[in-house]
Amino acid sequence: MEKIMSFRQELFRQEKERMVKEQLIRRGIGDSAVLEAMQKVARHLFVPFVYRAYAYGDSPLPLLQEQTISQPYVVAFMIQTLQLQREDCVLDVGTGSGYSATVLAAIVQKVYTIERDRGLFEYAQRRFRWLQCNNIWSREGDGTVGWQEFAPFGGILVSASGPRVPKSLCRQLAIGGRLIMPVGKQGEEQVLVLVHRVSGKRWEQRKLGGVRFVPLIGSEGWEGL
Ligand code: SAH
């Protein structure tokens, strides 16, 4: 039995390594802290048991309550755009499985994460405890209002799309901090929007990807790379 277990662990390790090389480095993720974090966090522990074999595949996967854990490339791309520093505090909106929060926690000092769905929140919280992620604080609630108590944040990662970037989140950014979020109406094409707080009163918005990025969100066309 022990042999089978270690064989499985070894298999997951190899798949993770391949994911980092083929899905991330080859597509231009170059931030070493992001790559190290993606190499460190065991994604198979965050997906529902039945999908474990696909944990390192090039696609999003279903979670409970009709939610999804994003494609690895999308997680890495979004986190890279935040240009985080080790000493930053980061807000993660839409905890879901807890995967993005755990990747962030491998890069920065403190991560605060908010989930609206009680079931997902409780499940993620248990997972954080079990994995001994001592630098993640999570709560159940509406993430669009942020978490004022621990603001300002050096980075804010929003993994649920909305029609616009909530003002309250922009206000909780530290000066110099960045926020990334998919913006667009449900059912229509969404674009990733990067907000950079350049001063106390000025926020710069940039749309990322558009034509180049959107096809990367699905896994089609990337098989066999
Ligand atoms: N970051 C997650 C992916 C989550 S998918 C991961 O790594 O697994 C988006 C999540 O956002 C879902 O779990 C959904 O329930 C949550 N969500 C949607 N609207 C929200 C809101 N207003 N506040 C907090 N969480 C929200």
Fold and architecture overview:
The chain is an alpha/beta fold. The chain is 33% helix and 22% strand. The longest helix is centred in the N-terminal third of the chain and has 23 residues. The structure holds S-adenosyl-L-homocysteine (SAH). The site of S-adenosyl-L-homocysteine has 20 residues, from strand 2, helix 4 and strand 4. S-adenosyl-L-homocysteine (SAH) binds next to strand 2, helix 4 and strand 4.
Stretches with pLDDT under 50, minimum 5 residues:
210-225
Q: Overall 3D geometry?
A: globular
Q: Helix amount, in percent?
A: 25-40%
Distance between the termini: 35 Å
Bound chemical compounds: S-adenosyl-L-homocysteine
Name the beta content range. 15-25%
Order of helices and strands: HHEEHEHEHEEHEEEH
- Label the structural class: alpha/beta
The average pLDDT score comes to: 89
Can you count the helices? 7
User: Biggest β-sheet: count, sense, barrel?
Assistant: 7 strands, mixed
Radius of gyration: 17 Å
